[in-house]
Write a structure and sequence with these properties.
By secondary structure, this protein is an alpha+beta fold. Helices cover 36% and strands 28% of the residues. It has six helices and eight strands; from the N terminus they run ββαββααββαββαα. The radius of gyration is 16 Å and the shape is globular.
Length: 148
């Protein structure tokens, strides 16, 4: 049986004035030396390893060009996407447009979310992810076929 790698965990780090961010070693091991970072939903950034990014790109390419929402969705993810490389200190340079989008200044939180990593401003993460309504959300997940 093959174990499928998943990103999980929450890590607090800082981003320096030049936009460099240390990627936790657990994440670096799975991501490799080069990967993709882009705008995410809910005000964070999404990070994909190259394999997951290619699969995501294929899904985006399959959306109908004639559908306005589909065009906007594709534009949102691809226009902000950037290939990043890990330096010798284990850092990546987060492009300024993505730092501005996610309001990253000093303290950030990296969160493993299965097939991707999310990068959040610590302040936004703490205000967004209270998990107080998790019971109600769990009921909706059951409607999507995820009964626990």
């Amino acid at each position: 049986m093959q174990v499928i790698g998943m990103f999980m965990g929450e890590y607090n780090h800082t981003i320096d004035a030049k936009g460099r961010l240390i990627v936790p070693s657990k994440f670096r091991d799975a991501l490799g030396d080069e990967f993709v970072i882009t705008k995410g939903l809910d005000g964070c950034l999404f990070v994909y390893d190259n394999k997951e990014w290619t699969a995501f790109e294929e899904k985006l390419k399959s959306l109908p060009l004639t559908n306005k929402d589909a065009r906007q969705f594709v534009r949102f993810f691809l226009a902000g996407a950037a290939n990043v490389e890990v330096d010798k200190q284990g850092r990546i340079l987060v492009p300024s447009n993505l730092r501005e989008f996610a309001k990253l200044s000093k303290e950030v939180v990296l969160v493993g979310v299965a097939s991707r990593i999310e990068i959040w401003s610590k302040e936004i993460w703490e205000n967004t992810e209270s998990f107080e309504d998790m019971e109600e959300i769990a009921e909706h997940m059951a409607d999507l076929g995820l009964g626990i």
